[in-house]
Amino acid sequence: MRGPGPRRRRGRIFRSSTQVIQKMSYPKLDRRRFLLGAGSLAMFAGLGHAGRTWAAPAFTAYPFSLGVASGDPWPDGFVIWTRLAPEPLAEHGGMPMLAVPVKWEIAEDARFARIVLAGEALARPELGHSVHVEVQGLKPARPYWYRFIVGGAGASPVGVVRTAPAADDLPGRVRLAVAGCQAYYQGWYDAYRHLSEEPELDAVFHYGDYIYEGPAGRNTDKFPIYDAAGNLAVERDHVGGEIYTLDDYRRRYALYKSDPDLQAAHASAAFVMSFDDHEIDNDWGGEWDQDRTPPEVFALRRFVAMQAWYENLPVRRTQFPRVDGGTRYFRRLDYGRLLRMHVLDTRSHRANQRCLDPSSARCRYEAGEPSSIMGPAQEAWLDAGLDNGARWNLIAQQVFVMPLKARGSGGEEQTWFPDKWDGYPGSRARLVKSIADRKLTNVVIATGDAHMNAIGEVPLRDDEPDGPAAATEFLATSISSNGDGGIDSANVTRFTDAGNPFLKLADNLRGYHTFDVTPDQWRADVKVMDQVQRKGGRLSTRARFVVTPDEPRLHRA
Rounded CA gap, 309 and 303, in Å? Predict the structure, then answer.
């Protein structure tokens, strides 16, 4: 069972002795609806004719320089992705402004001796020569291998992805990872190399901050990057200034996705993609950016940033941004009767955020007006989705829910954080009430953003931090953002010294989390790196926690 969501269009399947060619059908393009913001991928990839195509490609270099990826597994399929870019940082990735036919294959083995699905898609210039294929008709709960082939260049790297269990199945285990916050200029992606070697991952939840929007030359003194021999790696930096245009965002994604360790992670498992602030601009929320640019102007930046996000990641056509801002990025993924994953969007629908300084010109808070980090439609969707028979509920989202208190450098107390759920306390109260009203004890929250590990419990009441809990929360640290870090730092002690009895672990190391989920327990391993500013970092398990579905409490294993 996938839960409520858009139904997929079924394609016609033509069988031969060696493969299945799948042709997708799409509705007729309505130009007026496009201009009014009805946008979907069908407008670009589903047209009835190819238009101008590159009949005899002659690439300047290997066109699959950005690798391959898969995402959003369902019991009968998943998304597979690639983007043609023989010169990733050149104009248009080194591609001509022509559509290019790209073949794709799905096999039951890594050698492609047993190809079960195959077809052809167009890499269109309107979408940065990206390719998204929504594969369906496969068997549940098993691995498949995939690749792309383009004339004149041969085959792409091979990726592997697992389909989800059947709707009525109760699998013995589902294995997930949580990762994000990967500032290219603040560290290497060795953590992704280690993640690519994790055995039998069903999926990776990426909570966001896949790219950072700032200019070149930032923090090079604070976060110097060295190669394995100890030489300063001056090339580990952004290219150009702060990004605003579609071409800017495309090039920034190309820079990040050129990293071989990130490519290896994508090729090893499906990624369930979300986004946070840096995919567009630091600390943006709803219609406002951090500088309070007029909303009608910021909307232009939001649209091109999210188009680039779509083009460069393995997400479904329903997540192509709409001109009217109405795209629904939140969605559910079910793993049989074991686990329901609720993937939230805690940026797009923010309204009436509290301000630390109400007198600031940037403050747009209006007392008495509705305030929400998710918006009413998403809150209702999550509330309804929690009413299910799954053994576990995973709320996969971006910023910490726990009502963390902190102390400043002078010892003063900061009691709340406006960019987190603290800035929208009514949303947290409604979430906790939704959980409590259903008497749920099986809710786990996966979080990121804060560049630290923070493991704790979400209290039922903010004013009783040592009272009963509504859910457990695993805030996963960054892959590279903020450099090497450490067990203790000012970013950690400000929380540990402020009296947060529900906080069970906090550190400032880099890495990721893994979840081993069974019907009887949720085991979370906190995986940390010894270094990221020098190439060759080693991985270890810092801590292990266990949660049982009958009680929202953390147990140190």
Answer: 10
